[in-house]
Design goal:
The longest helix is centred in the middle third of the chain and has 18 residues. The N and C termini lie far apart (39 Å). The protein contains six helices and 14 strands. 24% of the residues lie in helices and 29% in strands.
Length: 265
């Protein structure tokens, strides 16, 4: 079903949560499009598509979606964060998405929803959502954030290479979801909790409370050299860094990389 933009405008634009909605039935990438014309995009604009043909996640990996089954959009947000605070927008967005999904799915069934460092959401141990953050006007006090979000909503079949790692709300809760209402709830929560971006310590504490990785053994892959090692996550620092301990007991902190939680079967 094509996105009901009239409904979105009624609840989000008319009520001033958004300044505008740019909708495409099909688009190569909401983030790539937004970066191309970012200087034309007002604060609180979303670029939205029902079918993203060439979406990418972190490190340029493809984000594959089916037509009219998922939520793929970019939110344009002007916000005054220092350079050393930019990570807070990433953690804030994933935390708000967690709250949105928790609220949306509470009547469907019991679920195992967690935040995964640094910007993914896992549902029953499988990836259900990812966030890709781009920042423009880095040297200005007011920076322009392009916040790309991909959420698997009603897709039931995934490509074979990611089938064991990806899932959707419909697959896990066995019911259909209205994509527009998920977006409406997310935008409202995002706007109503912005004060957390000025309370970094509190935000990171809340984020960690919705993550289950601290104390867990994980596989950690460094992106600069591709090395992978089993480590134990000791903490997530307020600056967004992942603090881990290796087999020798040495403690290190990383700001980029990839973790895979090692579950006891």
């Amino acid at each position: 079903m094509i996105m009901n933009t009239n409904l979105l405008s009624k609840y989000l634009v008319d009520s001033k949560y958004l300044s505008g909605i740019i909708y495409f039935e099909e688009l190569y990438s909401t983030n790539a499009y937004s970066k191309k014309i970012y200087h034309e995009l007002k604060d609180n604009t979303i670029v939205l598509t029902s079918y993203q043909t060439n979406g990418t996640g972190r490190f340029g990996r493809p984000w594959q979606t089916n037509r009219n089954e998922n939520l793929t959009f970019s939110l344009i947000k002007d916000y005054g964060l220092r350079i050393d605070e930019i990570h807070l927008m990433n953690f804030y967005t994933s935390y708000i998405l967690y709250l949105t999904l928790n609220e949306t799915s509470k009547d469907c069934s019991e679920h195992d929803l967690y935040l995964k460092w640094p910007n993914d959401l896992l549902l029953n141990r499988k990836k259900i959502a990812g966030i890709l953050l781009d920042v423009k006007d880095m040297n200005s006090d007011m920076k322009k954030f392009i916040i790309g979000i991909g959420l698997n909503v009603n897709q039931e079949i995934f490509p074979e290479d990611i089938n064991s790692k990806a899932t959707s709300m419909k697959n896990e809760f066995k019911c259909e979801f209205m994509i527009e209402m998920i977006l409406i709830n997310f935008i409202k929560l995002f706007n109503e909790n912005l004060c957390l971006l000025n309370q970094g310590d509190i935000l990171m504490k809340l984020w960690k409370s919705k993550s289950n990785v601290i104390g867990k053994k994980v596989k950690f892959k460094q992106l600069d050299d591709g090395r992978e090692a089993e480590v134990v996550v000791m903490d997530i620092d307020n600056d967004g860094g992942l603090i881990v301990s290796d087999v020798s007991g040495k403690t290190c902190k990383f700001y980029s990389g990839e973790i895979s939680i090692l579950y006891d079967e």
